[in-house]
Amino acid sequence: MKNQLLIQILSLLAVAVSILLVLFLLTVKTKNRLSNLFFGFFILLNALELSSWLTNQYLQDIPWLLMLRVTCSALINPLFYLYLLALLYNDFRVRPQHIWHALPFALTNLLLLPDFYLTDRVSQALYLQHYSQHWPVQFFEVVSHLQFWVYIIAGFWKIIRFRKVYQENFAEAGMQTYNWALQLTTWIVVVHSVIIIKDLLPFTRFAFVHEAALVLVSLNALFINSWFILKTMFHPELFRQMDSHIVPLKEPDPQPPSAEQTDKIQQLRQYMTTQEPFLDPQLNIQQLAGQLQIPVRELSILINQQIGQHFFDFVNEYRIRKAMDLLRRHTNAEMTIQQILFAVGFNSKSSFHTAFKKLSDLTPSAYRSLVKAEK
């Protein structure tokens, strides 16, 4: 009894937090309005699922509405996938073909028409009493589980592809988009796995921990919604996007660079050293190609295949070497490390520290202390 009360309280808190977040996402003025809409409706449907502890008893007198709330869960995974697309790609638009994502929801409700929706309220209530025994419901549950994994696999594929293309064409800022998308998708897999285990527990010898699993699910829901709010507070821009038509390069060419490519690599390195275009935090390969008057594809092949670095690492190496120079010249902290990271083109302390340690095996503070000791 105490566990049930705790579950209801946690569910109520999670639903309240969800509603506040949805209101923010649907009303905030931002260039990422489409992704916010998808994310908002995704959270709203999850809140409807979670509210079953609170609403089912009131919906018993409206069986068709209760069933509709249940089948709406078939829209959760498509909404999440469309959110990922809108988050990652700035040219994503809702098109007529996207209506196919609603097919499982529409088909399930179509199958329920003759035996449920078109019957009287008494018959509907009886149908719900033996809910899991009806084949349309069994079909819905099987499709729901398959649907989840199909969309999750597709989501991970999009995220991995985004990372590869981004590193070949951009430097630094947009990796927070990749990190957010990966963290969110991974966490959804974890939560879904906990729910599956929770649903299977009553059929095992560990049925006595079923209520504890319900508490864990409710805590997860409250935690993840609070995490969403913290993300929107600390990263209100949510996030850097790119064109979906940019495709990753093929595997590196094993052939050595031609004489012409060698000359262009030398020209590129000289330009990076003398003109320092990497100081622009928003620098991308299209901008650099325009400055050098080299076709974008050709510059991408030079950096990613002939030099053997992603554009992301190539640019950040120049930034870190510039930061090392500033640290050597300002050993007595005339410039703080935060001032230096902004000065060399970074806009994130964590990404600066990661890149610095990758190149030098030291943190910026440790490097400064080492240089000071040598003097």
Q: Can you put this structure into words, describing what you see?
A:
The protein is mainly α and 375 residues long. The protein folds into 2 domains: 2-234, Rhopdopsin 7-helix transmembrane proteins; 259-374, Homeodomain-like (Arc Repressor Mutant, subunit A, Orthogonal Bundle). It has 17 helices and no strands. It has helices spanning 2-27, 33-50, 52-59, 63-71, 76-88, 103-117, 121-129, 135-169, 175-200, 210-234, 259-275, 285-292, 296-307, 311-329, 337-343, 349-360, 364-374. The longest helix has 35 residues, at 135-169. The model has no long low-confidence stretch (mean pLDDT 82).
Layout of strands and helices, then pairs:
Elements: H1 2-27, H2 33-50, H3 52-59, H4 63-71, H5 76-88, H6 103-117, H7 121-129, H8 135-169, H9 175-200, H10 210-234, H11 259-275, H12 285-292, H13 296-307, H14 311-329, H15 337-343, H16 349-360, H17 364-374
Helix pairs in contact: 1-2, 1-10, 2-5, 5-8, 6-8, 8-9, 9-10, 14-16
Compact overview of the structure:
The chain is mainly α and 375 residues long. It has helices at residues 2-27, 33-50, 52-59, 63-71, 76-88, 103-117, 121-129, 135-169, 175-200, 210-234, 259-275, 285-292, 296-307, 311-329, 337-343, 349-360, 364-374. The longest helix has 35 residues, at 135-169.
